[in-house]
Amino acid sequence: MSQTHEFQAEVKQVLDIVIHSLYTDREIFIRELVSNASDAMEKMRLTQLTEKEVFDDTAALEISITTDEAARTLTIADHGIGMTRAELVENLGTIAHSGSKAFAAALKNAGKQNDAQLIGQFGVGFYSAFMVADKVEVHTHSWRKEGEHLIWTSDGSTSYTIDDSSDQARGCKIVLHLKEDAAEFAQKHRVKQILEKYSNFVSFPVMLDGERVNTVEALWLKSKDGITDEQYTEFYRFAAHAFDEPSYRLHFQAESPIVINALLFTPTQNMESFGMGQMEPNVGLYCKKVLIDPKPKKLLPEWMRFVRGVIDSEDLPLNISRESMQDSALVKKLGDVVVKRLLKHLDKEAVEDPKKYNEFYSNFSRFFKEGIATDYTNRDAIAKLLRFESSMTEPGETVSLSDYVKRMKEGQKEIYYQVATSRSTIESGPYVAAFKAKGYEVLYMFEHIDEYVISSLNKFEDKDLKSVNAPDIDLGDSSEEGEALAEADATSLCDWIKEHLSTQVETVRTGKRLVGSPALVLTPEGEMSPQMRQMMKAMGK
Ligand code: ADP
Ligand code: MG
Question: For the whole model, what pTM was predicted?
């Protein structure tokens, strides 16, 4: 039976760009297809632990790549989990399950940007095959016994067909019929050269025309001295399916309280900022090089979902089910150790190169703020990573809470901040002047959530965090020169104002916090600040 299906509209759009834009780094399609093969076999390895009935159960877990210059084809075969008919439609016909999701989302947001550049930033997963091939066949049989022998075929234009086949081994065999200008990818030496960059990160044998090209080695188990920056970056891209550069990396071994080998990265790009919704956790959990769970939910706190990499512990039992593992005390301990190390590492890096950190922070601050609000255990360590503009920084420059505390004036007991939409709103308003006059620094916060985040934090190094519009701040005598009103006059002025504003204010009183402005509004004790009210309103509360 032959069935023809239309690609989903978003896929068509992606394919159109993949096929027509002149992208220079076309060779990445090999990495994409090899990483899919590797993913499918990692999944197979896990499936075999729990399922008794597996089609073609003895097929070797390896990747075989064959070149044929005469026919101008390149074939990449694996014995992974394969796909059923429904999975072919879902995985290769829609964007929902594809690495090109970010690309499609960015296309929507980017308008008419340079498309080739976009591919470079995001990659397009399986569809990258169409950069070099004008016809792609996927021969497959699912690991499920009841699966069918199938061939998926497409020229990458608008549709694909699925035909019945016979005698497929378990897994996928992908045949690329190369375009004339991509003939190089049918040459063994060219393909070998490409594979050499990362095939050692693949935890299965990779064979090229019958010869083994890789020695399976887990980069995270090696000592740091023998690893170049380039290898780290290649590994990051391979393991995280990423296309950007890592911004920070942490590679460490620990023996106690538990044996850990970890290699972690933070990206440069924040994928959530492309309107793709929440990222999934993406630090793979391994036991002695064997992947146990590619996306463990409870290993790291949810706010750390932007972190990429690998955590390997030989103390983990290999045959434990994923469900019970997520709740195990061992996993919790692993996570705790790693989180502490990572936060400390970021803090150190931030102090060593503030400019680089600022750049990183400007993309990822949301996660740290989420961490303050949700991760009680690590709150103090996360707080050290926050940065704010202030009355003592230049516009665009920031200060950390630690530095704020270090330069607090003698006699200053609290940390002051104001939340408003912009620096100029704050500086032209009536609040900060009195603090400035005392030489007290005021942190400037520009996001609605800041108010909430800061009130969850409450204190930093034992100092209270106080909004400048809190009523109970005592700045002592204002240094303002000039005549004060006589007490009787002041009282009758207050009464007069109160009468006119009636229910809009609770009290009207004189105070010593005014420099250059005649009056200001404070938030009564126990009341929500205007920013907080706005945020609740935005959240529909
Ligand atoms: P991603 O790998 O990020 O999910 P891709 O576009 O590379 O996105 O692949 C889309 C989907 O197609 C995969 O998620 C997987 O379900 C399926 N797939 C691709 N290649 C294979 C393969 N060799 N074996 C089994 N499934 C595959
Ligand atoms: Mg992929």
Answer: 0.82
